[in-house]
Design brief:
mainly alpha; two-stranded antiparallel ribbon; about 30% helix; Multihaem_cyt_sf; Isoquinoline 1-oxidoreductase subunit
Length: about 180
C-alpha cells in the first residue's frame, strides 16, 4: 500500500518530459514547494521571533527564538521538547521532539514569503545557513531535523512524500540549474 503523503509528491522523473531545462528546473522547485510550504517546515522558519505549531497556529506557551534559535533563557526549547516525540497520555496529540530541536536562524525565515522568494533565499548562502547548493541537497536529503517533518508525531500531518523523495527533487533541481519560479523563459 502506498502512503497517501507519498502520492502527493511527484519524483524527478515526473518532470523528464519538460524539454526546456529552465522550465523543468522551475517545475521541480514548485514540486519541492509542496514540502517547503507545508506546516512542518513553515512552523520552524518564522519571520516573527516566535514559532508556530500544528497547522500554523501561534505556539503555546508563547516562546521566543532566543540565542541560537534554542529559546529564551529560562524557557529553552528543550524545556518541553525532548529528544523524541512524546504522545499525550490520552493518545490524541503529541509534543514533537528531536535531539537538536530549535528554530531556524532568523536569516532563514520563510513564513509569509512567496515560493519564488523562498527559492531565492535557498540559493543565497547568506540566507540559507551558508550552504552551497550541493550542501543544500545534503541538508534536505539527510538532516534528521529536516527528516522529522515526515515523522511529526500523533496529531500532525507529515510533510508530503518522503525525505528521500524531497532530496531527489532537490538534487534534480540543482542539477537542472536551480531555477526559481517565475524566472524561466
Amino acid at each position: 500500500m502506498v502512503d497517501r503523503h507519498e502520492e502527493r509528491l511527484r519524483g524527478p522523473e515526473a518532470f523528464s518530459d519538460i524539454p526546456d531545462n529552465a522550465e523543468r528546473s522551475e517545475a521541480l522547485f514548485r514540486e519541492m514547494g509542496k514540502v517547503i510550504e507545508s506546516p512542518r517546515c513553515m512552523n520552524c522558519h518564522p519571520k516573527a521571533d516566535s514559532p508556530t505549531q500544528r497547522e500554523g497556529r501561534p505556539h503555546t506557551p508563547p516562546v521566543t527564538r532566543g540565542v541560537g534559535g534554542m529559546g529564551a533563557e529560562g524557557l529553552q526549547c528543550s524545556t518541553c521538547h525532548g529528544e523524541e516525540n512524546v504522545t499525550f497520555t490520552n493518545g490524541e496529540g503529541s509534543i514533537p521532539g528531536h535531539p537538536a530541536w530549535h528554530l531556524a536562524p532568523a536569516t532563514m525565515a520563510w513564513q509569509g514569503s512567496s515560493l519564488k522568494g523562498i527559492c531565492e533565499q535557498l540559493r543565497d548562502p547568506e540566507r540559507n545557513g551558508d550552504r552551497s547548493l550541493d550542501e543544500l541537497v545534503e541538508h534536505n536529503s539527510e538532516d534528521t531535523l529536516v527528516g522529522w517533518a515526515w515523522t511529526p508525531g500523533v496529531g500532525r500531518e507529515p510533510a508530503p512524500g518522503t525525505q528521500e523523495l524531497f532530496g531527489a527533487l532537490t538534487r534534480a533541481w540543482v542539477d537542472s540549474g536551480a531555477v526559481c519560479p517565475g524566472t524561466a523563459g
